[in-house]
Amino acid sequence: MSALNTRSPMKAPSIVSSGLAAIGFELRAYFRVPDVVFFTFLFPILMLGIFGAAFQSMGDVGTLPDGSGGISLAAYYLPGLVAAGILLSGVQNLAIDITRERYEGSLRRLGATPMSPVSYFIGKIGVVVVTALLQSALLLVFAAVVFRVELPTDLSTWLRFAWLFALGIATMTLLGIALSALPRSTRSASAVVIPIVLVLQFVSGVYLQFTMLPEWLQNVASVFPLKWLAQGMRSVFLPAHLEAAEAGGTWNLGLVALMLLAWLVVGLGASLLTFRWQRRS
């Protein structure tokens, strides 16, 4: 028997270890592209800086009749921008990135390597989680240091933030994978994805108070997940008395969780049905 036949087969790297290596690769690639870093990582921080500085002279919002309870506009915009950051990291970043890799042939070449497709998605999901965590942490530190925004101090509120963040990341990641099937080319990816993401931010209570919108537009926005994620984040970072300013006069966290879970299922189903390793002819 030849030496070739007696040699033990080479052990393929495990899916998990390959996925962790893919996370490191994806992170290095992410931070090497300035426009990606700006539009998905620094954009919420930039917007908070603009809104906080531009409207600082307008005084506090939500002030009670006795003069207490008011917050700065920077504090008011903070929860919506945290939610928007999750949207940008999950939906916008993944949809554009996967489209580019598909039409440049990277996904097709992946099939010729020992790397499992599961490891590929571990890398993609991992970079979304890491960048969203870093972005949120930097946004909160920026708000606290520059605009003196008071952050929650009790554990229960941070636990609420944790499940909203985790559910939001899972939902937006799956929706980003599903949305990557929509653009017909690398060039059209940004033109297709960015307007969708931008419109959702304006109608979901990120840049405008949600109850200021016409009722029909509120009803349309209430179909989409960003409205619910922003509402949940307001329950974390805004004073309790501002709950009365919400549509329906309540944070309605049960419905927030239900709507995000529903969109998670939609994203999962759409991803399984539409994802392709090769571009459409």
From TrEMBL:
<dbReference type="InterPro" id="IPR013525">
    <property type="entry name" value="ABC2_TM"/>
</dbReference>
<feature type="domain" description="ABC transmembrane type-2">
    <location>
        <begin position="35"/>
        <end position="278"/>
    </location>
</feature>
<keyword id="KW-1133">Transmembrane helix</keyword>
<dbReference type="GO" id="GO:0043190">
    <property type="term" value="C:ATP-binding cassette (ABC) transporter complex"/>
</dbReference>
<keyword id="KW-1003">Cell membrane</keyword>
<feature type="transmembrane region" description="Helical">
    <location>
        <begin position="117"/>
        <end position="149"/>
    </location>
</feature>
<dbReference type="Pfam" id="PF01061">
    <property type="entry name" value="ABC2_membrane"/>
</dbReference>
<dbReference type="InterPro" id="IPR000412">
    <property type="entry name" value="ABC_2_transport"/>
</dbReference>
<keyword id="KW-0046">Antibiotic resistance</keyword>
<feature type="transmembrane region" description="Helical">
    <location>
        <begin position="251"/>
        <end position="275"/>
    </location>
</feature>
<dbReference type="InterPro" id="IPR047817">
    <property type="entry name" value="ABC2_TM_bact-type"/>
</dbReference>
<protein>
    <recommendedName>
        <fullName>Transport permease protein</fullName>
    </recommendedName>
</protein>
<dbReference type="InterPro" id="IPR052902">
    <property type="entry name" value="ABC-2_transporter"/>
</dbReference>
<feature type="transmembrane region" description="Helical">
    <location>
        <begin position="75"/>
        <end position="96"/>
    </location>
</feature>
<dbReference type="GO" id="GO:0046677">
    <property type="term" value="P:response to antibiotic"/>
</dbReference>
<keyword id="KW-0472">Membrane</keyword>
<feature type="transmembrane region" description="Helical">
    <location>
        <begin position="161"/>
        <end position="182"/>
    </location>
</feature>
<comment type="similarity">
    <text>Belongs to the ABC-2 integral membrane protein family.</text>
</comment>
<dbReference type="GO" id="GO:0140359">
    <property type="term" value="F:ABC-type transporter activity"/>
</dbReference>
<feature type="transmembrane region" description="Helical">
    <location>
        <begin position="189"/>
        <end position="210"/>
    </location>
</feature>
<keyword id="KW-0813">Transport</keyword>
<keyword id="KW-0812">Transmembrane</keyword>
<feature type="transmembrane region" description="Helical">
    <location>
        <begin position="36"/>
        <end position="55"/>
    </location>
</feature>
